[in-house]
Amino acid sequence: MASYHFSVKSKNKGYALSHYLYISRLMQYEGIRKTSNETVEHIEPGRCMPSFVKDPIEFWQAADTYERANAKAYMEYEIALPNEFTPDQRKMLVKTFFDKHIVPQQYPHSYAIHNVKSRLSGEEQPHCHLMFSLKADDGIERTAEQYFKRYNPQNPAKGGAKKIQLQDGHADYSTFLLHIRKAWENHLNDALAKYCPTVTYQIDGQDITIKNQVSADNYEKYNEIHGTLYLPEPKLGAGKQNETMEYLAEIQKIRLHNAKEREMEQKQRQQTQQHEHFYSCLNEPYTSLEVMYYLNYLVKKAKNQKELNQDFNEIIKTQKPILQAEHWNLNKMDYQLKNSLQYTDPQIEFNPVTVLKSQVEQPQVVQGNQPTQPSIQPKPKNNDYDFGGPGF
């Protein structure tokens, strides 16, 4: 299953050239290809480079040399890519994203796609390193030294290239981070829906197929929003903890837990959506539970009284025998449904008509945030409609 990782980093002058050589696996870093299980799937040496650049090495070396003291020499996006994709699909995935979020600003940039096997599971872990300068190329010819001087707004040709900050056009830098991380989430999920919409896990000997998608939210926030119990997974860095079997076993345990949690979340989503589809291939009467859910659905989607009345009449026509057998008060239900649209936030509860006269319960319409409920009925949710059939 695809995973989400999108980090934004920055480095001051003195690190740009070394990092470019590292992601490109050049010079002193060339041996990494030979000594590891890594594959370099693609290298883009340089795009949007200024006119003085003949080789991207020149640009990143100039950034280290001429960028102002304590200034950011480059920014980096480190992005996890789906191992379900082919190398060409991964290449196109990052290129189309950068074409939208890097190229329009004319940020000089280089990037590479690496693919290394996990030390824990042996699975491929493709990822992309993008490095770019905030000194946007404006097409004016400058020397390397002049390019990194301070921008001159009165006469741009006499100053350096303008530095376009990432937060320009956003409230602040934090807002930009939320924006760019969400943009990658949407971009990746669109590609997953196209090339690999589902993924199958084997849990306890059973194949479980779930939707393949990612979220930019961290586990804590995602759990809070969706009511899930996912656990954050420790990262396998270069520390000594990677050498202990206990540490690796703990990660495997967390991965199994999260896989089972994904299964439960998928089942819950399916159950939540079931009430929207009530079709009987045998053309038999539905149960009162199905009718209750469907009435609830109709009220939520109805745009006007005419539509609601037509839908309700159709239910009465097809479901009348079983509704009467279970002692539903059809006249009261019809009346309350039609009047429910008069209120901004109605809370409606229908009780079945019992056979015993002494225990006849009438329908109740309660408005406000604290409705009075019969003791035998569960409290309805706010902004919801609960048509209580027998036993509900």
Question: Mean pLDDT, nearest integer?
Answer: 75
Helix content: 25-40%
Give the number of DSSP strands.
Answer: 9
Under the CATH scheme, the architecture of the largest domain is 2-Layer Sandwich
Total of domains: 3
Strand order of the largest sheet: 1-3-5-4-2
Q: Strand count, sense and closure of the main sheet? A: 5 strands, antiparallel
Beta-strand content: 15-25%
The secondary-structure class comes to alpha+beta
Q: Give the CATH class of the largest domain.
A: Alpha Beta
Say what the CATH topology of the largest domain is: BirA Bifunctional Protein, domain 2
Give a summary of the structure in a few sentences:
With 392 residues, the chain is α+β, with helices and mostly antiparallel strands. It has three domains: 6-196, BirA Bifunctional Protein, domain 2, CATH 3.30.930; 217-274, no CATH class; 275-392, no CATH class.
Polypeptide structure, described:
With 392 residues, the chain is an alpha+beta fold. It is 38% helix and 16% strand. Mean pLDDT is 75; it is low at 273-283 and 345-392. The protein has helices spanning 16-24, 32-35, 56-66, 87-101, 144-147, 173-195, 219-226, 245-274, 288-301, 305-325, 330-340; strands at 6-12, 39-47, 72-80, 109-117, 124-132, 198-203, 206-211, 346-349, 364-367. The strands form three sheets. A five-stranded antiparallel sheet has the order 1-3-5-4-2, sandwiched between helices. A two-stranded antiparallel sheet has the order 6-7. A two-stranded antiparallel ribbon has the order 8-9. The longest helix is centred in the middle third of the chain and has 30 residues, at 245-274. It has eleven helices and nine strands. It is elongated, with a radius of gyration of 30 Å.
